[in-house]
Amino acid sequence: MTTKLMGQGIQRVEDQRFLRGKGRYVDDVHADPATLHAAVLRSPHAHARIVDIDVADVLEIEGVHLVWTYEDLGPLSAPMGEPLPLLIPHPDLTQGRTQYALAKDEVNHVGEAVAFVVAEDRYLAEDAVGRIKVTWEVLPPVVGVEAARAADRLVHEDVPGNIGARSEQKTGDVEAAMAKAPHRLELDLDIERSACTPLEGRGTVARWDPDVNRLQVWSSTQTSTGVRAAIAVKLGLDLGQVDVITPDVGGGFGVKVVHPWPEELLVPLAARALNRVVKYTEDRREHFISSSHERGQIQHIEVGFDDDGRLLALDVMFWHDHGAYTPYGLIVPIITSTQLLGPYKPEVYRVVYESLYTNTVIVTPYRGAGRPQGCFAMERTMDAIAEYLGKDRTEVRAVNFIQPDEFPYDQGLIFQDGRELEYDSGDYPASLEKIKELIGWDEFPAFRAEMAAQGRTVGIGLACYVEGTGVGPYEGAHINIETTGKVKVATGLTTQGQGHATVFAQLVADELGVKFEDVEVVTGDTRRMPYAVGTFASRAAVMSGSAIHLAAKRTKEKVLKIAAEALEADEADLEIVDGVVSVKGSPGASMDLATISVLSNPLRYAFDEASKAATQFSVGDPGKPPVAEDDEPGLEGKDFYSPERATYASGMHAVIVETDPDTAEITILKYAVVHDCGHLINPMIVEGQIHGGVAQGVGGALFERMAYDESGQLLNASFMDFLMPFVTEIPDGIAIDHLETPSPLNPLGIKGAGEAGVIPGSAVFASAIEDAERIPITAMPISPSELFTLRALHAETPTTQERPA
Amino acid sequence: MSAQDTVRHGEQLHLIRLRVNGIGHDVEVPARRLLSDALRHDLGLTGTHVGCEHGVCGACTVLMDGKPVRACLIFAVSAVDAEITTVEGLTEPDGSLSPVQQAFSECHGLQCGFCTPGFLTTITAGLNENPCPTHEEAREMIAGNLCRCTGYQNIVKSVERAAEITQAKEAESA
Ligand code: FES
Ligand code: FES
Hints:
Largest sheet of chain B: 6 strands, mixed
Number of helices of chain A: 20
Largest sheet of chain A: 7 strands, mixed
Number of strands of chain A: 29
Helix content of chain B: 25-40%
Radius of gyration of chain B: 17 Å
Bound molecules: FE2/S2 (inorganic) cluster
Structural class of chain B: alpha+beta
Strand content of chain A: 15-25%
Number of helices of chain B: 5
Oligomer: heterodimer
Strand content of chain B: 15-25%
Strand order of the largest sheet of chain A: 3-5-1-12-9-10-11
Shape of chain B: globular
């Protein structure tokens, strides 16, 4: 096969397994009656002191093997008595706090782990949890950003003002620039909490093997190597004693990058203590109250601009609700504060944020990771400027774009990876042309008039974003050509449905000249690749894709070296096609990869006909050592890719909505996406990523919120009450167009594509609903009843001019 | 309590026979054991997934006498008289993919694959009832199942493609 696979919509290889019910998710591992099951007692209070825990009755229950509270952990392994790690420390996070694996003295949100039970099955474990008696001293909770800011109550007694971090970045003197600007506007915006809610929750299975002193752990994680390191540290083991395997994962979207979850430590600890396989599978309510959420922010924006709408000064302050603890540091607010700028170049920018403690579930990245909020702030600002100047919204955006000849473009800020925020490539004016075309921007006034004639109200919205993807520090890949000629590829990051087994095989088949079907990819198994970071921040294709490409090159070098010797030809004259190396132009002289693999390993013993050919009496120069000094046996190649900085994908979304004059129901008539992630490896998969992202964007804009009451109870912790979109809520057809501005930072010219679909969700819907209703939309998500209320308020005190006829 | 019934961990067990994918299985379960758990943990048929355990997501959908039901809302003991089909039982007798499975593969109808068994069983039943759905009917057919990954675009396509494949197959064998 000589056609290049990169760029082709190859059908996914992993689907065969999933379609037959043969997927292996964590809960499918050790699905047998000998496995013990864990359940967790979780705090019913948002803020309380633990006066006493009485577990006396619990061990009496038949079928219960173990019950632990905080007191039990330290004696089993000293580090278990310490708080969980603060994974990403940052100098601005002066008041970082993390929870204990099981609460010590105090709980800070409903759902915090308090006690841990292992029993014969989950039913019995839950029965046992129900028998634990806790005496609480309930404390007043802090719920929501306003309460945190008011700080008349504290989440952590020793954190003044509930402020975990205060951060500032600026590119010049914003006050001076603002004072000079001909026009100024202020906006106050509010965006709600949502959550990743993958269909598969968290899960961990562990088996301790006393015969070799090793621990084997399966976890539904986005970072096997991270979980491995955390377990080793906390259980007092060497890294080499712990294997972490991440099998199929039923969606992650960010939440599964947090680690170690308490259960990821408690399950292995219990497996070791009991010498039995122990499994924990989270249930849906637990996922809502004990994993993580995102998005909640309040923003204040001041902007100064000229008559064309050019940004002269942009001054942003926002308050970020990070929940009860900060295990994942400041990643979300850092991203909001830096990625807010999108494709624009304000002359001066200042951003200040406070990251605040509340007695609610922790906040960590959810697909888009802080960008939806940043995009909301920036795009609402663009719309406000256009409204103020009476200009078309696309014109105001266009005058602010970084131009194609200005790349690389340094925004003068420090990004989430501690590197400069320097955009590598892009063409925003071209994207704008495409999105206008795709949504029918210029034809919309006619459409609006036509609809109005039928008594229907419609609006159009647009939103642009830039997304830092493919952040470091690195990923690696190992390729091994078996003596059967099959190619085994291992990369350490994980897979949550993005089709890695397919796209990575495409890259290897291309570079190595083997059949696609002969390539097998393994991800997330620390036994196969112990050095890795993880799958998040749209980094898998860029990082592991590049590493795999480089490892394939190395493997190919070795193949050609051995083949050249065996075929007595010059390496430069060789080519590999469909797994056969031959001398270009003379097809007779050839050798397949299976044979070359056999030859790569000088043997003493013959196991079969093929290996006979590689024994000491049949190959090699008797005057030289069988393995040369700079060589090693086996047909393998390994390499790593570590970029200087992130690569910047970009895109624009547009939507046409209809709002019902009576019920205020919001209907999506058309949704369009223009997307630039550099070269596409597999367009079918990229489009699938966009579809999924758009659906989550729709959810975030119109439905999803975490309904906390004043006492910190999450009132909608089920799929019955937390509204995720079904097909009925999703546009029927999403128009997609691609632009390919290759990244100069990696050998394949690619950028990440995983999160793009979700980023502009709230911004684009706010824009369209505002356009339809002529009422400023400043808070998302927006439900029909909220829109209804807004209409009533607006009728009393109009705040926007009517649209000129 | 029948003669064979025993007690485990203080809980009365019921010896029941479940007929799944044409095979009979004898299992001893407490009355409260969910069908989803019995299938997954007692029979090892892990293809049926549990996404919510409260009847909303549809990931646990299996066919009982050909009709889609939520296995997380049914006790195993209430399934004794039924013929149950799980995702593992959807393939053709020769082991090849059924039209619905085939369509999902062609149309990129799945990403993480966790919701997929529920969609496959639901659509299989849906197409049995309505072999030529309109586009709107294809959307309605899957309106009771949640997928967090695909945005449903390609699942709708898969329903339409599955109908096409089925019709082509029928035309061939006619
Ligand atoms: S698991 Fe049964 S409907 Fe969700
Ligand atoms: S494919 Fe992941 S939930 Fe549907």
